[in-house]
């Protein structure tokens, strides 16, 4: 089932600084919104546990001293072939035909957790209090809300990101901001071998190197260097011809 | 994976129930085809079916404890086109219904001949219903096994051996119970049941030993490189993004030490296979009941290890706190 439209996030790992603003704004918006609540257990105690739709993880790549730190925001990737959907015994887990968002119908979910076993990304988190599976909704209650100004109809995480590492749009529209970002900056999918065809893409860490050769640093025929001895040629030159 | 006790009880109880039903039908077929007019009473099959029904019902009851919202469990029968879990939700009551029908027809003695053969034998109503019961039992074994075997992100489970072993262990358990029940009833099929049980125990042991060997050698397909898409050979997690717990760190990790898991492997091989095989060989009625009880505990341990050995791809993202 190929959707005409597929909303998704594109996350630029080259820009993400790992500040967790997307994590907190996601929780703030969604715990009191359509997809909420996102309850915590023992949040201020020794052993806190809670539901989040978005996590920022940190990885270290390479071998010291040639290492680099990658901050890696992780949420539901709204796969185009979501393995979590067909396995649901009640039909509570579904993918919207209109925009490709993968959602859970809390009124149908029986809390068997089988969908979470079938997600390779660990994107679903179970709400022990309501007894239903929860997950990122791409802020479905924000992005179509016409009472909001048009530029605010974006997922809470995208609006919160201080470094604009998160882009939101339709990856099936070749002219969208996200499609251009994927095309121009080497956007990729996570765990391609899982066969899930995730809609969310990531942009890789990029280092910009200008290849400058030594002979390019000094200009041999710099016209400002008048005091230098002019080059000597055996016969008449173009300069001789043009200077009479 | 974290072993869910409701599921351990569900799969072991219904496995024994299905095995017992298959044994009863096999016993009836054996007597119809092979003997000169010796039969068991309808009461024997009826009580045996009732016993199977109790096991299946207990399994069904256990399954409800796995659900956070069991009041909507009826909805789980709706997605049978795509979900093996949904198919199991249909197959389990179907097997229970067949157990009622099979046992009930025997109890009432409604056993008209449906078809006569040239050799003087006939296909009776109870036998025909018995064949359908066996089909339903195998369909349920397939559904139960496929629930785990189709989870491709747990490579230890995603194998045909998951289905084979669930079936063999369920049948072995059911045939031991059938042998104990037949011996207590003084039925002539006791020898058939205990002999078949022995073969099934050994077959199940080989199947399970193969899957243990396979799991010990399994190589992960997915690595951190693909998980975060960084083209590096050497990637370590510094932080999983939180210091506490989450669903991802509780549901997908069993939390027991490697020694505990190893000890339980030894225990389930001894209690689930070797001890019951020895007791079935000895053959006294009390020992057959003991064999069933010991094997049941062994199979619970086996199922625990089955879960504990399952290593989910998502665990790549949850390797380090802080």
TrEMBL record, chain A:
CDD domains: PsrB (cd10551)
Superkingdom of the source species: Bacteria
Pfam families: Fer4_11
PROSITE patterns linked: 4FE4S_FER_1 (PS00198), 4FE4S_FER_2 (PS51379)
4Fe-4S ferredoxin-type domain boundaries: 7-37, 67-98, 100-129
Protein name per the record: 4Fe-4S dicluster domain-containing protein
Biased composition regions of type Basic and acidic residues, renumbered to the chain: 212-230
InterPro entries listed in its UniProt record: 4Fe4S_Fe-S-bd, 4Fe4S_Fe_S_CS, ET_IronSulfur_Cluster-Binding
UniProt entry keywords in alphabetical sequence: 4Fe-4S, Iron, Iron-sulfur, Metal-binding
Region annotated Disordered, chain positions: 212-244
UniProtKB/TrEMBL annotation, chain B:
Domain of life: Bacteria
Residue ranges the record marks as coiled coil: none
UniProt source species: Magnetospirillum sulfuroxidans
Protein's recorded name: Dimethyl sulfoxide reductase anchor subunit
Organism classification: Bacteria, Pseudomonadati, Pseudomonadota, Alphaproteobacteria, Rhodospirillales
GO molecular function terms noted in the UniProt entry: oxidoreductase activity
EC class (word): oxidoreductase
Cross-referenced InterPro entries: DmsC
EC number(s) recorded for this UniProt protein: 1.8.5.3
TM ranges: 43-68, 89-108, 128-151, 163-183, 189-210, 264-297
Record keywords: Membrane, Oxidoreductase, Transmembrane, Transmembrane helix
């Amino acid at each position: 089932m190929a959707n005409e439209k597929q909303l998704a996030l594109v996350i630029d790992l080259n820009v993400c600084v790992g500040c967790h603003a997307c994590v907190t704004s996601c929780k703030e918006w969604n715990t009191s919104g359509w997809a909420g609540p996102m309850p915590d257990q023992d949040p201020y105690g020794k052993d806190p546990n809670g539901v989040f739709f978005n996590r920022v993880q940190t990885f270290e790549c390479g071998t010291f001293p040639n290492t680099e730190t990658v901050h890696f925001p992780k949420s539901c990737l709204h796969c185009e072939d979501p393995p979590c959907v067909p396995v649901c015994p009640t039909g509570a887990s579904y993918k919207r035909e209109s925009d490709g968002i993968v959602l859970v119908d809390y009124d149908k979910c029986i809390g068997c957790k089988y969908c979470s076993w079938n997600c390779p990304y660990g994107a679903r988190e179970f709400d022990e209090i309501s007894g239903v599976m929860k997950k990122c909704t791409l802020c479905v209650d924000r992005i179509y809300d016409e009472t909001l100004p048009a530029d605010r109809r974006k997922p809470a995480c995208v609006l919160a990101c201080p470094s604009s590492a998160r882009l939101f749009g339709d990856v099936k529209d070749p002219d969208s901001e996200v499609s251009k970002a994927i095309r121009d900056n080497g956007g990729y999918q996570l765990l391609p071998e899982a066969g899930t065809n995730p809609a969310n893409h990531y942009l890789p860490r990029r280092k910009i190197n200008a290849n400058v050769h030594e002979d390019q640093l000094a200009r041999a025929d710099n016209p400002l260097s008048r005091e230098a001895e002019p080059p000597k040629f055996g016969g008449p030159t173009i300069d001789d011809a043009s200077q009479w | 994976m974290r072993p869910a006790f409701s599921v351990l009880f569900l799969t072991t109880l219904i496995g024994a129930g299905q095995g017992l039903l298959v044994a009863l039908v096999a016993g009836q077929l054996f007597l119809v085809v092979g003997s000169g007019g010796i039969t068991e009473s309808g009461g024997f099959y009826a009580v045996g079916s009732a016993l199977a029904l109790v096991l299946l019902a207990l399994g069904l009851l256990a399954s409800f404890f796995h659900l956070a919202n069991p009041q909507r469990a009826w909805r789980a029968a709706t997605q049978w086109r795509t979900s093996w879990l949904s198919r199991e939700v249909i197959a389990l009551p179907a097997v229970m219904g067949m157990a009622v029908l099979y046992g009930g027809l025997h109890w009432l003695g409604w056993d008209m001949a449906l078809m006569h053969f040239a050799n003087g034998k006939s296909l009776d109503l109870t036998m025909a219903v018995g064949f359908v019961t066996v089909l339903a039992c195998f369909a349920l074994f397939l559904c139960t096994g496929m629930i785990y075997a189709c989870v491709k992100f747990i490579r230890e489970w995603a194998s045909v051996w998951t289905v084979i072993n669930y079936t063999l262990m369920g049948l072995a358990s059911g045939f031991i119970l059938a042998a104990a029940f037949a011996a207590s009833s003084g039925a002539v099929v006791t020898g058939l049941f205990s002999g078949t049980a022995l073969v099934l125990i050994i077959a199940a042991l080989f199947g399970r030993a193969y899957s243990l060997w396979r799991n010990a050698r399994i190589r992960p397909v997915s690595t951190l490189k693909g998980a975060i898409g960084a083209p590096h050979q050497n990637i370590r997690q510094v932080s999983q993004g939180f210091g506490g717990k989450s669903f991802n760190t509780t549901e997908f990790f069993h939390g027991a030490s490697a020694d505990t898991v190893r000890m339980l492997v030894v225990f389930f091989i001894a209690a689930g296979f070797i001890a019951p095989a020895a007791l079935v060989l000895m053959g006294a009625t009390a020992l057959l009941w003991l064999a069933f009880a010991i094997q049941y505990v062994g199979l619970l341990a086996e199922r625990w290890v089955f879960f504990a050995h399952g290593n989910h791809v998502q665990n790549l993202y949850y390797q380090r706190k802080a």
